[in-house]
Amino acid sequence: MPLDPKRTVAELKELRALTGDENGAWRVAWTDTWLKAREWYRGKLAELPVEVHQDAAGNIWATLAGESEKALLIGGHLDSVPGGGWLDGCLNVLAGLEVLRRIAEQYDGRPPVTVRLVDWADEEGARFGRSLMGSSAFSGTLEPEAEKDRTDKDGTRLEDALRRCGVEMDRMLEAQQEQKNAAAYLELHIEQGPVLLDIDLPLGAVLGTFGVERHAIRFFGQAAHSGSTPMDKRKDAFLAAAKMAPEIYAITDRNGGVCTLGSCVTRPGIVTSVVAECDLTLDQRHLDADALARMLFEAKKASQRFSREGGLPEPEWSTIWRIEPILFHPDLIEFCDQAIREVVGTSHRLPSGPLHDAAEVARAGIPTVMMFVQSLHGISHNKIEDTKEEHLELSVQALDRLADKTIDWIRQQS
Amino acid sequence: MPLDPKRTVAELKELRALTGDENGAWRVAWTDTWLKAREWYRGKLAELPVEVHQDAAGNIWATLAGESEKALLIGGHLDSVPGGGWLDGCLNVLAGLEVLRRIAEQYDGRPPVTVRLVDWADEEGARFGRSLMGSSAFSGTLEPEAEKDRTDKDGTRLEDALRRCGVEMDRMLEAQQEQKNAAAYLELHIEQGPVLLDIDLPLGAVLGTFGVERHAIRFFGQAAHSGSTPMDKRKDAFLAAAKMAPEIYAITDRNGGVCTLGSCVTRPGIVTSVVAECDLTLDQRHLDADALARMLFEAKKASQRFSREGGLPEPEWSTIWRIEPILFHPDLIEFCDQAIREVVGTSHRLPSGPLHDAAEVARAGIPTVMMFVQSLHGISHNKIEDTKEEHLELSVQALDRLADKTIDWIRQQS
């Protein structure tokens, strides 16, 4: 079977028909629709000379044994958010499947290095709120004990939902065994942002995933009557908080990266009172750890300055979540760039704002790279998520070339 | 009975003990506690040579007939918000009572002009959300048909609550009959703001009540992933809205008056998304109608400019409520100033941010003025509302002098 990118597009449509409707994809991890998608996928694997098993964390591995035990890993995730896009996650799995078919045929079932395709379990965390579940068990960063008691909106416990799918949480970390002999990891993904769309390129090489600083900020003012309180007597929590909005744009102008104030809550929040308390959420992301730390420092300083200017006490900061930047492997980034240039003429390097399973694999110390394909509308996690078929086909070709380059690289290291 | 300001303070405390507790005053209009306060007040009136009746809107009038039918009105309100301050409203009624006593004695029950003390019904609108109820029936601006179906939080209808207190809504506007022969109206009130406190003066002459422009503003951005959307690709509704906060301070710097952004609501309002929609409430107040109109115009222009800067469509404005500025009578303001200077040496002229029954009386075309007494903490509608006893006593003396000057003025006009 020579590489047939059109088959990948056809299979994506087949999966969409099987597990989606007019409101989008419904392959939420640990649900029947997800299991149906995986069953369909196992049917495809059955036509190949591969060993297939589910690991202790629910990840499905298809292994094409090679001359060397050193393994090239290619991965994605079949699970989606509810009403999600038709490509998010599963493009990687099905493009990887096509590459696996090509390699299996070219080397008559025995390539120079082992090639393994992984379908990660629960990348999205859509049902229980814990994303990168399967890949973080693989990398060892998951703490199953701390997650067990999560429940979905119907009150079902995470532990029970996983057991139903053959996963015992106490044993999930045994999935780390799958790291053995892993020499490189490749992941193709839709961009989920507008960068490639804006520069009108189909494909890009991903430098790494942003580190994230996610904080809640509370400003303390004083309630006062909107009619009887002169402007210079006010302690206006909204004024101090609002000044943060242009400030985060200034911070990214100086440092790069992205910053978002996604929520603003005012109390008492009535038309006739100066705002007594104002809560903001801040999300800062950068590929460079020092720059990320500087962004956070500057935002804290600014919040203090704006409070002081308004006669307010120091605002209160509390951490919601944070993760360090994860950089991909320079050799693999270079191969990714080359592969893209060979297929479409021009490449572009860009960071990934969202996290991906690739970040967990990289955290495990395995050389990793991702390739992005353009998203129409620059949007994801939405039924309108889409990518031109022509670009999907190019992405399968480029992933295939990247796989070849990486196999050579692994072989040279052996 | 010569004027005895200490008696007013004693009576205020008596009323507090009767109708309040450690959480403040509970004389909410149309409730038993309010009726109890009014019964107590009628007991005080019974000792005076006055005719007492409740008008069609529930206002209680005590009339000391004079040589002339031309009448000086003095008024306040016994009703309070739930857990309200001990002085708000009732200071006026009890100070007026003391002035009435003094006049009754001095002229042996027959002053040169008629003097009438009114206890307005439901100034606060605390239970049904319609403030200035009794005084707007008096002035004729109330539309009883439009208010009838209001309910309190327990579902009781306004109409039924009023009927229980002897008020038929269909007949409320007959209270306009009380305007007959009214020649002037005086109202003493706690300031409810910090102006007199800050300049350390006990009393001030009020120029009028602010006009109010109250609007909701909706900014339209676009939801986008906080990690994958570059800063220059964002349509951030919070950014445009937030720029309004410093802007309203600039607007009042240029125009005077006050502006408040009391509520900010963000949608989707999650940490990982750029804000797609942001709602603000704006409350603008000014004593000068032209300046108020200019403030509104400038705020609208600014909201359009900030939207344009952020690549957003025009924001949507909707009116919540508006009222024109109401100016008090220049002669009475002058008398008020004189009375204050005679009692405490120095006066100060200031506008009223909050509305008062006096605004409705002035709208009826009756020459009106208010006198403010300093509020500690600059606060009201709260159990901690307070005024120094010494200032309360001075306020009774100044009101008494103002009444005398106004009686002379009315007499000269006859």
The helix/strand class of chain A is alpha/beta
How many H/I helices of chain A? 13
Write the CATH architecture name of the largest domain in chain A. 3-Layer(aba) Sandwich
Order of helices and strands of chain A: HEEHEEEHEHHHEHEEHHEEHEEHEHEH
What are the low-pLDDT stretches of chain A, counting only 5+ consecutive residues below 50? none
Biggest interface, residues from each chain: A-B, 60 and 60 residues
CATH class of the largest domain in chain A: Alpha Beta
Strand content of chain A: 15-25%
Our measurement of the CA-to-CA distance between the termini of chain A, rounded to an integer number of angstroms, reads 28 Å
CATH fold field value of the largest domain in chain A: Aminopeptidase
Supply Rg of chain A: 24 Å
Largest sheet of chain A: 9 strands, mixed
- Chain oligomer state: homodimer
Q: How many domains, in number, for the residues of chain A?
A: 2
Compute the average pLDDT of chain A: 96
DSSP strand count of chain A: 15
Shape of chain A: elongated
The percentage helix of chain A is 25-40%
CATH superfamily of the largest domain in chain A: Zn peptidases
Q: Which helices and strands occur, and which strands form pairs?
A:
2 copies of one chain form a homodimer.
Chain A: H1 5-19, E1 20-21, E2 24-25, H2 32-45, E3 51-54, E4 60-64, E5 68-76, H3 90-106, E6 113-119, H4 133-139, H5 144-147, H6 158-164, E7 182-190, H7 195-199, E8 203-209, E9 211-220, H8 237-242, H9 244-255, E10 258-267, E11 277-286, H10 289-309, E12 316-323, E13 326-327, H11 330-344, E14 349-352, H12 357-363, E15 368-373, H13 389-413
